[in-house]
User: Fold UDP-glucose 4-epimerase from Limosilactobacillus pontis.
Amino acid sequence: MAILVAGGAGYIGSHMVKDLIEHGEDVVVADNLSTGHRDAINPKAKFYEGDIRDRKFLDKVFDNEDITAVVHFAAFSIVPESMSKPLKYFDNNTGGMITLLEAMRDHNIKYIVFSSTAATYGVPEHMPIKETDPQNPINPYGLSKLMMEKMMAWADKAYGIKFVALRYFNVAGAAPDGTIGEDHGPETHLVPIILQVAQGKRKELSIFGDDYNTPDGTNVRDYVHVMDLADAHILAIKYLEAGNKSNAFNLGSSTGFSNKQMLEAAREVTGKPIPAKMAPRRPGDPDSLVAASDKARTILGWKPKYDDVHDIIATAWKWHSAHPKGYDDRD
Ligand SMILES: NC(=O)c1ccc[n+]([C@@H]2O[C@H](COP(=O)([O-])OP(=O)(O)OC[C@H]3O[C@@H](n4cnc5c(N)ncnc54)[C@H](O)[C@@H]3O)[C@@H](O)[C@H]2O)c1
Ligand SMILES: O=c1ccn([C@@H]2O[C@H](COP(=O)(O)OP(=O)(O)O[C@H]3O[C@H](CO)[C@H](O)[C@H](O)[C@H]3O)[C@@H](O)[C@H]2O)c(=O)[nH]1
Assistant:
């Protein structure tokens, strides 16, 4: 019996695979390496290279392996790219979910844990954001993920496939042993970009907008450590296996940090000056996104270990310092 991790060569998926293996699970990875890295896949996992939109590929994986649950990370996730290339997001994200659910239905696989996102809420009406708050995404990425949540809900009613949608806020950090970390190409996320400036790989950080409706004018986000996130997925699998109903949970720290505060924290962690300049707003960015994540704590029993962004940044810094070129320096 094994867990299938779709997108297990990516940033969050590779940490999930490591966590599952450390919990004694057998793991199968399906990934087309479009944004992931072969070297990020744990050597104890069985790897199938292919696209989840390819039904024959999925049939091969499900025929060969005794899969009990699927954890689904295989998607595109760059907010600004989705604004300029919306159909790319509906094709890969929403399209991938159709094929995956059809294959699960036909192979009688009943559990899926899904990477959803704070971006499904759009501009929130309340802060912190609760799972019951309205979901009105303001970018195609968020809409593609909301459509995927709704498709799972209908697949539950029609075929009995139970799901947990985990709505991540901003994921950062790396495995504390420094073996795997975040390596997107091109990088667009705040924490790795700040650390690339600290490393001297970039001249300066551009802070996208200082005229938002927030205390210091820069966007406020809620950062969660990637290993805490992985733990929540393991709890979600157990929750489904215990016969519970489909559900959605926010995963965040319930504390917001502005882009300027994140820069300051990174300066403290790295001891580097990290030059920065103000730049125009980036399309698709809501002012603030902070999670109410007590539901995951109460129902799943989730206990995040990292509650200080300095510690989150420190694990990322360990990875970046040891792998200045990311996974490329292992080729
Ligand atoms: N990074 C964040 O802050 C964040 C926040 C909220 C939600 N998420 C979600 O978490 C998931 C993982 O994010 P990440 O940062 O690890 O991204 P990532 O790009 O590092 O990982 C995605 C992985 O999926 C693979 N993939 C993509 N499309 C595929 C397809 N059609 N078939 C097979 N494999 C495919 C890629 O090769 C990659 O290995 C995404 O679905 C994203 O929407 C991420
Ligand atoms: O060079 C940069 C990069 C980012 N930012 C700012 O930093 C903040 C965080 O940006 P990220 O790109 O790191 O993350 P996002 O908040 O855009 O999106 C992340 O979190 C979202 C949910 O909150 C989604 O789930 C999405 O998948 C995930 O990438 C934003 O205000 C952004 O404008 C900068 O100022 N300069």
About this structure: The radius of gyration is 19 Å. The longest strand covers residues 111-117. The longest helix spans residues 86-106. The chain has a mean pLDDT of 96.
